[in-house]
Amino acid sequence: MGGDEAGRPRPGIMPASAWRQSCRQGWVGEPSATRQIHLSSPPNIESPMDAELKEALLERCREMEIPLVGVAAADRWADPPFEPWVPGEFWPQAIYPETRSVVVIGLPISLPALETSPSVWYRELYRTVNILLDQYTYRIANFLNDRGFPSAFVPRDGYADVEALLKNPVAFFSHRHAAYLAGLGSFGVNNVLLTRKFGPRVRFGSVFTAAELPPDPVMEEDLCTRCMRCVQLCPAGALDDRDYPAGITDKSACTAYSASLAKRGVSPCGVCIKVCPVGEDRELYGRRDPSIYARGDGREDLRRGWEHVQSYGGR
Ligand code: SF4
Ligand code: SF4
C-alpha cells in the first residue's frame, strides 16, 4: 500500500529521505525511511465495524471528561489527503500491523497559563496535560483490550528529551496527523491542528486498536484565518507564511529555541498557539482580540501578571 511492486512510492507519499529534505530541518529521522512498507490485515481478529463498541467508548471518554475524541480508519494513512504526506513507516499499520482504527483524544491547554509563557506555570500545565493524555489513552486501550480488541496507547511524546529532539526533531508517530484524519481539526499556517473549541491550544494522544470502529469524517472546513500572527511573533523565526504543508516549520530552529528555554527550566515556547485567534476558548477567557499580545498594546494589567509569573521559578 506504500508503493507499487517496483518499490516506487505512491503519488503523494514521499520517501522519508525526500520528506526530510522537504522539511528543511527534518521531520524524519535516519532512514529506515526508504524501505518499502507492506501493510497486512490483522490475523485471526474478528473486528466487524462496531458502532455499539464506539458508543461505549465515547461514553467512557465522557466519564473521563475528555472533550475531544475522534476515530480514524487505519487505511486512511494510505490515501494522502495532501502532499507531501507522512512516509509509510510512520503509519499506524506499519508500527502495529493489527491496527484497524486509531482513536485520538484531545485535551486543552488553558489560555491564562499559556499566556505567561515562557514560564514555570506553562511548563507544568504542558507536563500535566501530557501525563493525562498518556493515562487516558492507556485506559482507553485497556477498555478495548478488555472487550477482546488488541489495542495499545501511543505515548504523547515519542522522544526522550529536548536533547534527543535536537539530534532528530521527529517522533515515531504524529498525533496531529492522526487527529486530522480523525476529523478533529484542520492545519493552520503554524503547522498545528486547529480545533473549533480550543484552536491550536490542544494536545493529542492516540490509541492503536484492532477494533474496526466507525470512523469520523475528516474536517472539510479550513479554520485558519491567515492572520499571520503566528509567523510574525515566532521568536525563532521558524514559521513560513505559506499554508501547511507547503510552509513547514523549521523544526531545528523551533527545537533550538525550546532547548534554550529548557536550560532556564521554562520550556516549551507556545507562542504560535497562544496568539492564534481561532478557538471558542478565547471567548470563554475574554481574549477574543489576540492583538493584546503585541508589545505596547494596552492591557497593562495582564502584562504585569505575566511578568510576575515569569520572574519566579525558572533558572
Ligand atoms: S513553538 Fe515557538 S519557536 Fe516553535 S514555531 Fe511555535 S512560536 Fe516558533
Ligand atoms: S495565528 Fe493566524 S495564521 Fe497562524 S494558524 Fe492561527 S489563524 Fe492561522
Describe the 3D structure.
This protein has a 4-stranded antiparallel beta sheet with strand order 1-2-6-3, with helices on both faces. Strands 4-5 form a two-stranded antiparallel ribbon. 33% of the residues lie in helices and 10% in strands. It has 315 residues and is α+β, with helices and mostly antiparallel strands. The chain is built from 12 helices and 6 strands. This is Iron-sulfur cluster-binding protein. It comes from Methanothrix harundinacea (strain 6Ac). InterPro entries: 4Fe4S_Fe-S-bd, 4Fe4S_Fe_S_CS.
Task: Give me the Rg, rounded.
Answer: 20 Å
Low-confidence runs of at least 5 consecutive residues: 1-11, 17-47
Placed side by side, the strands forming the largest sheet appear as 1-2-6-3
Structural class: alpha+beta
Q: H/E series, N to C?
A: HHEHEHHEHHEEEHHHHH
Mean pLDDT: 87
Oligomer: single chain
By DSSP, the count of extended strands is 6
Molecules bound to protein: iron/sulfur cluster
The largest sheet is: 4 strands, antiparallel
Helix run count: 12
**Molecular shape:** globular
Instruction: Report helical residue fraction.
Output: 25-40%
Fraction in beta strands: 5-15%
Number of domains: 1
Q: Could you give a quick summary of the protein structure above?
A:
A hairpin with a 5-residue loop joins β4 (186-187) and β5 (193-194). Residues 1-11 and 17-47 have low confidence and may be disordered.
Helix/strand layout:
Layout (H helix, E strand, L loop, with lengths): L15 H7 L28 H13 L4 E6 L18 H4 L5 E8 L2 H4 L5 H27 L4 E4 L7 H6 L7 H7 L4 E2 L5 E2 L7 E8 L19 H5 L17 H13 L7 H4 L6 H4 L15 H11 L5
The structure holds iron/sulfur cluster (2 copies).
